[in-house]
Amino acid sequence: MTHVIPKSPISQSKVYVVKEIYAPYFDPTFHSHPEFQLNCVLEGEGSRFVGNNITSFKAMDMVLIGPHLPHVWRNENKYFEKDSTLSTRVIVVYFHKDFLEKHCG
């Protein structure tokens, strides 16, 4: 995975953004963004690629990703099969790198 897609940053008017995502599989796009990302997998399994590290993930996996660090969660192949009944669920929190300084300091 060498091609990294930059994603749009969250608005400067937001302190943080929380998303709960249900999907048949995680977005397989290797990407980065300028915010921190706290990612908690509630359903799903596969491989997590963060920078040059590859690790397995499963339900209750929680990871904090730093700004501009390329990453992707890639489900096992069985999630992409035509008749799959598997699904994923994740809670993601994005926050700016100066979040604590600006809003808690």
Largest sheet: 4 strands, antiparallel
β-strand percent reads 35-45%
Question: How big is the Rg?
Answer: 14 Å
Integer average pLDDT: 90
Q: In DSSP terms, counting alpha (H) and pi (I) runs of 4 or more, how many helices?
A: 1
Q: What's the helical proportion of residues? A: under 10%
Order of helices and strands: EEEEEEEEEH
Distance between the termini: 38 Å
What is the 3D shape?
Answer: globular
Spans of at least 5 consecutive residues whose pLDDT stays below 50 are none
Strand adjacency order, main sheet: 2-9-4-7
Overall strand count: 9
Structural class by secondary-structure content:
mainly beta
Quick synopsis:
The protein has 105 residues and is mainly beta. The chain has one helix at residues 99-104; strands at residues 5-6, 16-23, 31-32, 36-43, 46-50, 53-57, 62-65, 71-75, 88-95.
Topology of helices and strands:
Layout (H helix, E strand, L loop, with lengths): L4 E2 L9 E8 L7 E2 L3 E8 L2 E5 L2 E5 L4 E4 L5 E5 L12 E8 L3 H6 L1
Parallel strand pairs: 1-3
Antiparallel strand pairs: 2-9, 4-7, 4-9, 5-6, 5-8
